[in-house]
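Internal ticket - ligand job 298, pyridoxal-5'-phosphate:
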Amino acid sequence: MIPLDPQAAFVQRLQATWLEANNLTLDVLRLDKVHPIVSGNKWFKLKYHLQEVQLQQCNTIATFGGAWSNHIAATAYTCKLAGLRSIGIIRGEKPQNLSLTLQQAEENGMELLFVSRDEYRDKKDIQQRFGNTTWYWIDEGGFGKTGEKGAREILDLASHKNSYTTIVAAVGTGTMLAGLINAAGSNQQVLGISSMKGNSDLQENVSQLTQQATATWSIHHEYHFGGYAKHPATLLQFMNEVYLEHQLPLDIIYTAKTLYAIKDLVISSAFLTGSKLLMIHSGGLQGNASLPPQLLAF
Ligand SMILES: *Cc1c(COP(=O)(O)O)cnc(C)c1O
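stdout (structure tokens):
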């Protein structure tokens, strides 16, 4: 087993003409380095759930996800490290060939239960049907307060965290974004880039988790590239360029869209000159295995 190493995260400064021309700096916090499977934000989001499992004297973590879910991958591995039983409720009928994510989750000891797309919508019903008092449930994608609490600790890994004017991160459920907003100072701005098309609940969901926050924040909804897990050629080409120029691997679902958005916003002068940007590389690289081979340069 590969141990988790939050200290392996580091800050990478990007050098690019599109930044210099606008008198901006962009640092990337490489959370992808924390662990190849429990990468990025997922470790932070799971951290306090692990404490809760102990407090509630449960022996099993059960959660929900799709075939390429980073959250499923991370939960399986984290449970293995912690010596807990893990159950993954997977959306859709069991396919003949499991995705690599699910194969790996199984290898890491997760028991997979497949439910139809219809049944999957009613999480409460599933919890009643399958679960029992020894099971500790985590919401789909790790959404919620307990995950948010862990995500507040992400910025501590950036050595000059107070020097940034703007923090930018990818958004799925909004849990990580909420943690970043709560951890940021009143003079900082936090921008989320939604990887989904028209996720109209996000504003409300993040608001609920950030009622005490002093930082300003907003979510961009126009960089979804067609929707969750859609990856048109422009996005893949961008990922390859970024890797060749900066040795920075990005994932197709979240971080590629986030850096693309940052570049687009910089070029359209959306940031004040002199801004110091910090992008959170939230990991997720395992999901790139869903692509046909040879599309990516890394
Ligand atoms: C899960 C995930 C996100 C989204 O995190 P939320 O807390 O659900 O918004 C962003 N980036 C990567 C790489 C992820 O795996």
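Auto-summary: The chain has a mean pLDDT of 96. The longest helix spans residues 41-55.
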